[in-house]
Amino acid sequence: MDTYRLRSVPCHAALLGIVCALVVATPAGAVDLVATTGLFRSGQYAECAASAAEGIAESQFNENFRLLKIRAEMELGRYADALTTLDESLQKFPASIQLRCLGRDVCRLNAQTERADKLLAEIQELVLRSPSRYSDAVSRVTVGRFLLSQGVDPKEVLDRTFNVAKRQQPAYAEAHLASGELALAKNDYALAAKAFGQAIKLDAGDPDAHFGLARAFAPSDSDRATAALNAALKLNPNHIGSLLLLADEHIDAERYDEADQVLAQVSLVNPHHPLAAAYRAVLAHLRNQPENERRFRKAALRPWPTNPEIDHLIGRKLSQKYRFAEGEAYQRRALEIDATYLPARLQLAQDLLRLGKEEEGWRLADAVYAHDGYNVVAHNLVTLQESLAKFQTLEKDGLIVRMEAREAEIYGPRVLALLQRARQTLCPKYGVTLEGPVIVELFPRQQDFAIRTFGLPGGDGFLGVCFGTVITANSPASQGESPACWEATLWHEFCHVVTLSKTNNKMPRWLSEGISVYEERQAEKRWGQAIDPQYRQMMLGDELTPVSELSGAFLSPESPLHLQFAYFESSLVVEYLVERHGIETLQRVLVDLGAGMPINESLARYTGSLKSLDEEFAKYARQRASAMAPRADWSEPELPRRADAAAIAAWLEDHPTNYAALTRLAKQQMGDKDWPAAKATLETMRDLYPEDAGSDNPYSLLARVHRELGQPREEQAMLVQRCELSADDVEALARLADLAIEQEDWKLAGQTADRWLAVNPLRPGPHRTAAAAAEHLRDDATAVASYRALLRLDPIDPAGLHLQLATALQRAGDLPAAKRHALLALEETPRYRAAHRRLLEIVGKLQPAEEDKSTEKPPEPKAEEEKPEDQP
Hints:
Layout: H1 13-22, H2 33-41, H3 45-58, H4 63-75, H5 79-92, H6 97-108, H7 113-129, H8 137-149, H9 154-168, H10 173-185, H11 189-202, H12 207-217, H13 222-235, H14 240-252, H15 256-269, H16 274-286, H17 290-301, H18 308-320, H19 324-337, H20 342-354, H21 358-371, H22 376-388, E1 392-396, E2 399-403, H23 405-429, E3 438-443, H24 446-454, E4 464-466, E5 470-474, H25 486-503, H26 509-523, H27 533-540, H28 552-555, H29 560-581, H30 583-594, H31 599-607, H32 610-627, H33 645-654, H34 659-671, H35 675-688, H36 698-708, H37 712-725, H38 730-742, H39 746-757, H40 764-777, H41 780-791, H42 798-812, H43 815-828, H44 833-845, H45 848-853
Parallel strand pairs: 2-3, 3-5
Antiparallel strand pairs: 1-2, 4-5
Helix pairs in contact: 2-3, 2-4, 3-4, 4-5, 4-6, 5-6, 6-7, 8-9, 8-10, 9-10, 10-11, 10-12, 11-12, 12-13, 14-15, 14-16, 15-16, 16-17, 16-18, 18-19, 18-20, 19-20, 20-21, 21-22, 23-25, 25-26, 26-29, 27-32, 29-30, 30-31, 31-32, 33-34, 34-35, 35-36, 36-37, 37-38, 38-39, 38-40, 39-40, 40-41, ...
């Protein structure tokens, strides 16, 4: 709710001199406006109101004291007192537009909405009657805010009021605050950060400026947002906006007790604050306390019964907890109060899109954009809709997959097959029946994925997101030369579909992610995360998060490593629960969550107590960490940075199992091309830590050593072991495919191609390998799929590929399709004799009925050179 943001007293440092000049003739002992303003800015609202009252008594025609008194009374929740002050002030200042702008919020919070509208209408009349009277910077900013409330074009308001005020009075920070608020309203966070940053340069002592900066950074930079929020609260510990933002963060991290404490602090300042009551309604909902939820919502609406922001805020927070159906219901309630309230319309559009109710969702997004073309999220969604319209849709067994058309033809069937397998595996395991369709959208542009998922560009590091029955994911095309295994990603996200459906979207993030990572490992040992030296160190150190606090580990991780560790630790908790208490207990926990029981309460039911769970899991995790390569020495070697092989070897004589030193020695030996010595060192490493899947793992390095030594079979063996530990090492997969073909190990070639396609199906290499293996293994279905994919990958020799596809289709018995591709080969190269022979053979086998199915005619000869006789 944008109440209390209409600032009119120029209280930044540069303008204090102006204020002082206005009161320079004040006699000794008179109330100081600067000091009174300072009381407000430091959160001493009661003292500010009292001081302002004294100032009014001493100077009946000082409007600034009256504005301060109203604002202080509003902050304290003394809405009736603020209304009385407003009435008295308007009698003294009947032409004040600042009092009327502030009075709008005063009247609203006294349930006088008609009068609030009347005050705004009076502003328009006053300014039109005497525009020159309101041409100073303070008035321009006030007029600008009024115009925005009336739906005037934001850019025009920015150019004609706020920017003019900045030029007119360069040190007036309020103009920059107004610009920042406008940018926030349009979801333009970068522009907002710039505006609030400039306001801070002009007036670093204004908590509102730091609060604005915190909101601007909140979606993208948690560290800077926290710093700005702390700065605001240091200046004003009672700054209600900042306290509410802090409570918001606690709710996101599932620190509900801490959120209660912050809201209690707000209540000490203002026991009637509508947004504080709305946040309490959110907490009540999350705690499955429907009666309290209704009570707090009613309290939030009591001062202003037609305030749409209350239901919008409650719904938005519930949607952030993936409770989109409940969020949708609250946005509809907000729109019942005010059908024109754009934030609720836009949030409802996003909720509907995430629920798979796309027709209404896109229609709402279009309507918001038509009304507000400057809203960044609305603009992004409308633009994305145009791109999605070009996607190809694949459907099967309740699965709807949308992909870029070319990608759909290349590996769309594999996507459907993977999702079908996930459904057949995971739904029975967790006792879930999916009633409606599951929608999966794969985006070749990361920016489109981010907009569909978050509404704004960004989201780097996210491979996929599940909203319930809607999954969005990056396709391999968006991930550069080294994409992650898309099959593992979709398996992970489909597991979210199952568990979110089981719990009605009422589960903490850590458990949802933990089950999905755990199920990745159950499906394929190469998928999911495994313990490694960094995780081992974190688990044996003090970085293991208690189970009862795991959700917070996802909100503000210290680094990307800590975020990844949160995923791994969560999966380890799931593994612990299954091992110690059985899969049935995990299923019971999910049932409890679906019924609205808090996670910690449910866990305590089956594990004894939360305290014992935290302790027992920590013990379990440390045991797992200690069991990782137990013979290896994981300490940092005390070696010079540029130590040569001899120096490292000498140090290793006294520390023969130091893994880091062995790694350095092996790489140094390889750099020196001492291949036999490197081989011996790497074999020692492999014996110490056979599960090493890191970038410097012994298998990849041994493969290179064997290659240098001219030992292809040994190199192949090492690459096979490497690929058993890693799902997305494209370089290892490509080399293993080449070796398998050289060794004519067609089974291995086919298996390697299949794994390679699970990582990057948009390169010709894995399809060529799959086709070669399929030809030798008489797997016509795979051969056909591979040749078709290669034709979509801009081949150098399309005629040859059409002929190979025609031959495979002929073997598979699809003679009309075989004829078509023989004709296409001739269309590319009309004198291609092998294609002519293949076409004649196919036509000779076609039955008349089948002949009619083919409508292609042989192409006209082209003046091109003839293909060689032995063209494949």
